[in-house]
Amino acid sequence: MIRSQPGRGAVPGATFIAATGGDREPFGTADRLAAFTGLSPVPRNSGRVSGNMRRPRRYHRGLPRAFYISSMASLRSCPASRAYYERKRAEGKGHKQAVLSLARRRANVLWAMIRDGACYWAASPAIMAT
Fold it and tell me: Is 118 within 8 Å of 82 (Cβ atoms)?
């Protein structure tokens, strides 16, 4: 089921299963899964300084790379991922920021796949854009 997501090959899929056990129960929400993978920024504010975002201190060190690799691979094989990436680039984000944004989106989709017990099905790019 996990490998049905485009771009999620044997190594990124195995890394995810090894880190999480393939279970969503310890996380509760997709946001907690994203925080565990290191894809969810947390604020680093102090005094009058606000708006600084950074990677959380506690996250699994192997998962960001696995999600980054699968996101890069999905750009070639999944039209919905490519459309999301192009939209982020049009918003002014750089390549790495757009790929990390796509990785976060794919973490949300993966969490929903595990929650529903369903394989990935390709939605049209118009649905993914919302």
Answer: no
